[in-house]
Amino acid sequence: MNERFDEQLKQALRPVDPGEDFTARVMARVTSNVTSIQRRRSPLIAVLPWAPAALAASLLMAIFMTHDQHPVEDPQAGLRAREQLLEALRVTSEKLDIAYQVVHNETHADSDAGA
Amino acid sequence: MNLRTRLAALLMLISASAGAASPEPKLLLPEFAALEEKAAEAVTITLDPALLGMAAKFLDPNNPEDAAAREVLTGLQGIYVKSYTFESDFVYPKAEVDRVRKQLSSPGWSRLVEVRSKKEQANVDIYISLDGNKARGLAIIATEPREFTIVNIVGSVDLDKLHKLEGKFGVPDLELERNKAVPAQK
Amino acid sequence: MAGDSQRSITEPRQVATALDAQCSNAAEDEQFARARAGEASAFAGVVRAHQRSVFSIALRMLGNRDAADDLAQEVFLQLHLHLSEIESAAHAAFWLRRVVTHRAIDKLRQRPHVDIASLDDEPEIADSAAPLDPLLQRQMRALVNELPGPARAVVLLRYQEDLDPTEIARTLDMPINTVKSHLKRSLATLRDRLGVGTTTVFQELGYE
Fold it and tell me: Is the pLDDT of residue A40 over 50?
């Protein structure tokens, strides 16, 4: 029975076509995007092609110089801690709900019996 | 008397009789190493104050799930979870679970709710550690034929906020969902 | 788009390497390499290869055909802009699924109410095999559409895309236990609402 349920769900969620002209519309946007990026190139870069590299180098220097003052926390560890926190709270609320549901159902049964 | 009223009445009774001794709200949870090998799924979460602080920094205030978590976090000093799921009924040793229950029978811990569901064979016990009128810890022991879970929360706990998380945490709000009809077909 | 709060999506190289090891389709990789080199027709081929998957994820997450079309187009546009960072056809498939689900979840958070009625417009899938139970399947789609965003994404990646929990975890940047938790509860909810029975199905799905 579970296999049949799974099969039904897979069939229910089979991918659907976006329409015949979807690819054409995407490519039209891609082409238009490429064209406008080329147009938006800064005149400064045309004159000073080394400007972006110089800017990047200055930024890197600024980062290294301030690094000692502001230790950077490991974002991966922080994100893992966040996921663990959410999972812990999810488990907790699920178990609390079991208790609430049973008590809630009993309360309703009591009032129905007393009515 | 609805659930909230019953809980509030119980809390008043407990606070009136609470003794001067307040045990450590952080439980000693066994390693359960042997159980990990038997379990189909094992979840172990240890969030001490430092990790909770780190997690808080990565919560996104624009994300409803994260915002709800942030509300609950206020005042918490630790969250510890051990949850095991098995492929057969009652393969986890009762003695292990009882060892944790024994810690919760010491003064300062009170059982707030004891639920026994015959239909699902699910048992849930919720304990609270009080210091005067203030909750300083929460423990939940939940057992089903193929799963047992222990949750220990250290710090000031808001049960209402914790319960309300359910609708925000990817778990459909069961009460709402049961009342919602499936859309009629054309 | 203005006002979107977008998740930052990192692309570790280890993921690309692992994916390369998993699936090597020479023709797809060759086409992808040509797309990376700037050949428009090759990129169009990449779009055609993945448009059903990307559009369907967007459609079932957002519940609205127009919004799904917009999102799917936007995702392919982003793919074109990031081609140099993507190393293979398999990596592109992973990248597309990841970006469309993350973007859809972000959009759902901004717009939590879904127009369920619009799902009635979902086209019947042209398939030589007759649907097992078309009415049940419509009900299933409606119920999936009621799941919260992250749970909905997990169910779609499992049942539409046929990913296993490890792949789903990688796609969504979600711990594997959270993925399994979402699957377990979502399936239980679907079964409960459809009156199919509430015995635990999770163990029978064979996830270790």
Answer: yes
